[in-house]
Amino acid sequence: MSDGFLTLVPKQDHFEEAEAVAAKVIAWLVSRKIIKPFQADCVLGAPFGYPPDKNSVTVIKDGDSYHFKLITNGLEVRTERTYFQGYESFEPIVIQCPACYTNLIEGLDLMDYYQETLEEKYQSILVQVDKAIDEWYEGKTSIIPCPACGSAESITKYHFESPRGFSNLGFTFWNWSHAFKEDFIQEFEQVLGCPITIVPGVI
After folding, report:
1. I need a surface site. Which of 108, 137, 186, 192 has the fewest CB within 10 A?
2. Would you list the domain boundaries of the chain?
3. pTM above threshold 0.85
């Protein structure tokens, strides 16, 4: 059986006090009885996570308490620089410039991608993306120039077909649901102090 997750990633790639911000969010979730105030072996991405509490079912759209029955069912909190993605494989369908909204790989044939017979212009862009992600991990400038409008933006600002996030803070809910309720996401953003990207995934 596969395990699903939803990661809430701030649209802010660096927090000076990531652990303090994480503690604030955790305290809020505990006060709402969405998670329990202790850690246990209930996540896959870290040694320990926070188990769900009785009100966790009130923030998910399907309202199903099935996750209570699973071994992997907790909240994993990360406070280190992380590139959050939902799936192991990456299909290059959309890499959209945040300035002019041009899809830099418009027209790319996925068959050519898998057979490694891409045109040079597509190959060049994908190489730049991989390099920018590596540079971001290393704390360097991670800029991708847009061939359409000439703007030079950080990789963290680009839009991809499948959601992904760049931050030193992230909250991964394991096997809770396929979606959270909108009011919960709005409250989460208020407590966090910035908008978030929701990154779904299955492993």
Report:
1. 186
2. 4-83+163-202, 91-160
3. yes
